Amino acid sequence: MKVALVYDRVNKFGGAERVLLALHQIFPDAPLYTLVYDSKSAPWAKDFKIISTFLNHIRFLQHKHEWLAPIAAMAFESLDLRDFDVIISVTSSDAKAVITKPNQLHICYCLTPTRYFWSGEEQYSQDKKFKIIPQWLKHYFRTTDLLISQRPDQYIAISKEVKDRILKYYYRDSSVIYPSIEDKFYSKDLIPMSERDGYLIVSRLVPYKKVDLAIHAFNILKKPLTVVGIGSELQHLKNISESTITFVGAVSDERLIEYYRHARAVIFPQEEDYGLVPIEAQANGTPVIAYDRGGALETIVSDKTGLFFDQQTPESLVKAVEKFEKAKISPQDCYQNSLRFNNQNFKKNFTAKITELWLNHLAHPATKVLSAN
Fold first, then answer.
1. 113 and 164 in contact (C-beta within 8 Å)?
2. What are 72's strand-pairing partners?
3. H/E segment holding residue 165
4. What is the pLDDT of residue 343?
């Protein structure tokens, strides 16, 4: 079984890229096909064989991928994947557009249906970059996304939340396999809650992550909050922060682990498709205070490994933090819960599912011929 991986773009690092690294451990010989690739901003990909589309020859577009939206699907269609048995597209956007033959099996490991067309459309409509897009072009993008969503033979979702979205927006069924966190995030020496100080956010600093909500809440609480991450909202967030809030930028994983280990709790204010941060936090014995929507509901055990707040307002978060201060949450319980999402389980579950789907495909070769017509 010869496997190829396809991903939207290789020019940053975040949760999706950690998923790709886990898949690389399972399929070390699988090349990674992508829209654009910048080796300087994606050193994590140095061990992959990267094959990019023709658009990568225009260097300034390597970090202007949003400009490529009208032709991204077409670019993925141009990729030659004929030598592979199984193609695994890992995507929240256009990578699922690749074209495969009836003898091949295309499995989409879906991070979420394209967020700015579907589940996140209302949020993105407030962004000034999206406001200038004419309505007819938005309709074209949505129609194209719906069309290419039918190309994968099978879907695997990263969470039950994403499974529901795939059914709602793409009318496709899917199975669920939770992504793992890396082994290095599991702390063998858990720090007691009595020895921890301050709260933590680990996030890209972009609008939908709702870091501003946490800033406003901790301005009210007057409690220390450390913010790990970079992004377009950095300066704005600094401008609205008071003296108890500290920004440390992007940090190494080793330093990040130390932040996790010493925090009283991690704040997770956004509605996420899945979210690796709550699991990484719990692997270090650290509870999570999260908005009660999305993937966090699947990874945090209420009142045992964290607490939820029910409205995305500073006041709701303030109440949750005050409740947390009176709660008795065990670092050991957090650690034990995180073991459900370890790398060993992911490898076992993902390998078994791919093998099952491939054997079914071989046993029923007519299935794809019919679906391709």
1. no
2. none
3. helix 160-165
4. 94
- Write out the residue range of the structural domain in which residue 253 sits: 183-340
pLDDT tens-digit map of 208-232? 899 999 999 999 999 999 999 999 9
27: alpha, beta or left? (left if phi > 0; alpha if psi -120 to 50): beta
CA-CA distance, 41 to 13, in Å (whole number)?
8
The domain total for the chain is 2
159 and 99 assigned to the same domain: yes
Model pLDDT for residues 38-64, shown as the tens digit of each residue: 999 899 999 999 999 998 887 777 676
pTM for this prediction: 0.87
Question: pLDDT-derived band of residue 373, with 50, 70 and 90 as boundaries?
Answer: very low
| 219 contacts 241 by C-beta, under 8 angstroms | yes
CATH number for 164: 3.40.50
Q: pLDDT tens digits, residue range 310-319?
A: 999 999 999 9
Q: What is the CATH number of the domain that holds 304?
A: 3.40.50.2000
Residue type at position 129: K
Continuous segment of H or E residues that includes residue 367: helix 366-372
Q: Three-state DSSP class for 223?
A: coil
Contact, 345 vs 308, CB < 8 A? no
